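Async update (no meeting this week)

Hi team, since we skipped the sync, here's where things stand on the single-chain job. The sequence we agreed to prioritize is pasted below, unchanged from the tracker. I ran it this morning and attached the output directly underneath so nobody has to dig for it. Comments welcome in thread, and please keep replies under the output.
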Amino acid sequence: MESRWCETRWSADRHDRLRKPKYYWKPPAEGYLKINVDGAFDAISGRAGIGVVIRNSTGGVGLSAWKAILHARDAEEVEAMACREGLQLGSAWCRRKVILESDCSSVAKLL
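Output:
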């Protein structure tokens, strides 16, 4: 599988300070929960981490979780793992309709 980086959308100005992201979090519609997932990958060590946050329509956090991954192949695999973990947590803890949101378009297209 070809390795593709799933980049976060930050840009640096000429003073190397980070600007605000281009895309802002939008709450789900009333009656829904939004599951936001993300992954980070170190290509040298193969180590990675994933994070999950589940929020309601007012932005209130219902659940947050993270997990360390000791052996991963690439960033795309880690992002897919984050999606799976988010959906598993959502099905275990949430009794509402959910929306899954990831910043990795290549994985999102496969779902």
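Quick observations from my side:
Helices lie at 75-93, 105-110.
The beta strands are 32-41, 48-55, 61-69, 97-102.
Reply here if anything looks off.
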